[in-house]
Specification:
Blueprint: E1 3-8, E2 11-16, E3 20-22, H1 23-38, E4 42-46, E5 53-55
Parallel strand pairs: 2-4, 3-5
Antiparallel strand pairs: 1-2
Length: 59
Amino acid sequence: MNLTTDRAQGVAIVRISETRLMYPLLADFSGTVMALLTSGTELVLDGDLLARSITRSAS
């Protein structure tokens, strides 16, 4: 998965460069985001995630 995490002024910036978040990739993405959130890190999602398709794979 094309996912990067940077830090700036105490905030984690999560950037994703995928055209779709298919079901197998969701576990990696959610694991990264949940680890940041449970550690108390402020989080910014960068990219057009809201407009991207989150699709469950049929396989």
